[in-house]
Amino acid sequence: MSESQEQLSTRPPVLRMESVRKTFGDAVVLRNVDLEVAPHTVTALIGASGSGKSTLLRCANLLEEIDDGAIWLDDEEITDPRANQDAVRRRIGVVFQAYNLFPHMTVLENITLAPRRVHGVARAEAEDRARELLERLGLGDKAGEYPDRLSGGQQQRVAIVRALAVRPRLLLLDEITAALDPELVGEVLTVVRDLKDDGMTMVLATHEMGFAREVADQVCFLDGGVVLERGTAEQVFGDPQQERTRRFLRRIVDAGRL
Amino acid sequence: MTSLKEESAQDDPGDTRDGDRDDAYVPSQRRIDREAHKRARARRAAAIAAVSTLVTGVVLYLVVVNAPGWPRTKETFFDWGYAREAFPQVLEGLWLNVRLLLVCGAAVLVLGMLIAIARTLPGPVFFPVRALAAAYTDFFRGLPLIINLMIVVLGVPALRLQGVTVDPVLLGGTALTLTYSAYVAEVFRAGIESVHPSQRAAARSLGLTNRQALRHVVLPQAVRRQVPPLLNDLVSLQKDTGLVSIGGAVDAVRAADIIVGRSLNYTPYIVAGLVFVALTIPMTRFTDWVTARMDRRRAQGGTP
Fold it and tell me: Which residues does the UniProt record annotate as the domain ABC transporter (chain A) (predicted)?
């Protein structure tokens, strides 16, 4: 863990947020948020529902426009209004809580859509890569199925493959196990663990505290749109400094989730 | 990763139900009694429906036949001889209605789709396009079709423009297309707006441009969902092709009109009406079938 902390400070970050502010009408959802994500590290965003975790991810992918502050992806300021938003999104993969697979396309079509239409990869090549990824995630026999024929865990793994198919620089995972039946959570988390071993840079919003503690190099506790506490998993889970963090973690423990 | 492969073999949703396995199942007396009761109830329901239908039919018949003007009405609207004379000519005219339906239907789908897309274009550049499309749908949905037809079929030739057709069929078809495009555009637009924003978000997050997201993700789902209302509008278009007769085009209605004008007997109108009904029935049944199929899929948890 100390090694990755070192990396955090020495390598230029993949994603950097500075003083980000986001409001929806009168509600301030993110307030003065700073964040740095070093290459090949995993950052876990934890906090109660409505604390701003998902909004932070949506802002990082430009699905939401921020009110103030700035966001950089590999030294390019992506919140600059002159930045090419489509080009930025091409470098960031997103996996959503509700999978958001395209219901009118087969698994293979879901995965090859972006490589073919956005990156101009030839069909055969895109399909080969898709099949290879599906095979790796244990979905080799599902290429021709439509999403509604798959279980939730399978759909979410397909969504991960779809995000990976464009070889993103950064992967954003938005509570990807929150909609799954408990017995299907494990198969999805296994995939995330393997991605970490492969060196994928990831930011994940999650309610799976045990998992966050296990895989995250950096943990950020969000409360009311503010990053109230951050540090290694050991620091935040083992020795939280803020009273609110302690109270949140106590509730999680009481609920049997940690 | 290898461990996952083994797991996926187990969580295949299409596994067999336990009904396939226990061959030794013998229905209990309770089940047999229950099913006998259900069958009896179904027989009773069928008997009641038959009697009720018969009574209603007889009452309607008696009311019509005993109406004071029935003999005259029968003579002028239900004359077998005139019906036989009119039928082949009405059928010949109907061929024009069918051709109009095919051509106008295709044109309406294309134009309607273009207008619907125009209404959803984002950005300030497209403001005039959006405004025009909105004005178009507002105007032509509000304008009675028969007035639209008269303006186009009678008004355009009156302009005596060089190179513009005066053919009542072409002009009538144009008027139909103008009105129906406005309706169909709204159907498409409702479909586009019914696709959940998360689908567009997923497409955009993959790096697809707004146009690509519309073309590959939003429109295919929108069109699929709107098949029943689209077919409904086509059924409606099918019968409204009969209105081109006001410009003098010899379709099924006009063919009947000609005979009526000569004989002063209205039976040919009845023939033409029945022919239209016969033509739309397969289409309405098809619409019902498609709708039911899609409802069934949705009920199973699938997305149409």
Answer: 15-249
Q: Could you give the CA distance from residue A125 to residue B252 in angstroms, rounded to a whole number?
A: 57
How many domains are there within chain B? 1
- Domain with residue B154: its CATH number is 1.10.3720.10
- CB atoms < 10 A from the CB of B124, how many? 7
- Shared-domain flag, residues A143 and A188: no
Query: Which is more confidently placed, B122 or B28?
Result: B28
**Pick from B216, B224, B301: which is nearest to A117 by CB?**
B216
Domain that holds residue B221: 96-248
Would the CB atoms of B8 and A103 count as touching at under 8 Å? no
Q: Which residue has the higher pLDDT, B271 or B159?
A: B271
Nearest to A190 among B4, B198, B220 (CB): B4
Residues from chain B contacting residue A89 (CB–CB below 8 Å): 204-207
Supply the pTM of this predicted model: 0.79
A72 and A179 both lie in a single domain = yes
Neighbouring CB atoms inside 10 A of B257's CB total 19
The per-residue pLDDT for B21 is 59
Same domain, A147 and A72: no
Sequential DSSP letters for B108-150: HHHHHHHHHHHHH--SGGGHHHHHHHHHHHHHHHHS-HHHHHH
In a domain, B273, yes or no: no
Nearest to A113 among B4, B13, B206 (CB): B206
What is the residue type of B256? A
Residues A161 and A136 in one domain: yes
Residue A217: name the closest of A202, A239, A195, A238 by CA: A202
Our CA-based measurement puts residue A3 at a distance from the nearest CA of chain B, in whole angstroms, of: 26
Q: Are residues A108 and A161 in the same domain?
A: yes
Picking from A168, A190, A207, the residue at the C-terminal end of a domain is A168
* Record: contact A148-B301, CB cut-off 8 A: yes
Residue of A92, A79, A74 whose CA lies nearest to A12: A74
Asked if the structure places residue B140 within a domain, the reply is yes
Nearest CA in chain A to B225: A104
Question: Considering only CB atoms, which chain B residues are within 8 Å of A162?
Answer: 206
ipTM above 0.90, yes or no: no
pLDDT band of residue A245 (cuts 50, 70, 90) is very high
A141–chain B Cβ distance below 8 A for any pair: yes
**Are residues A113 and B216, on separate chains, in Cβ contact within 8 Å?**
yes
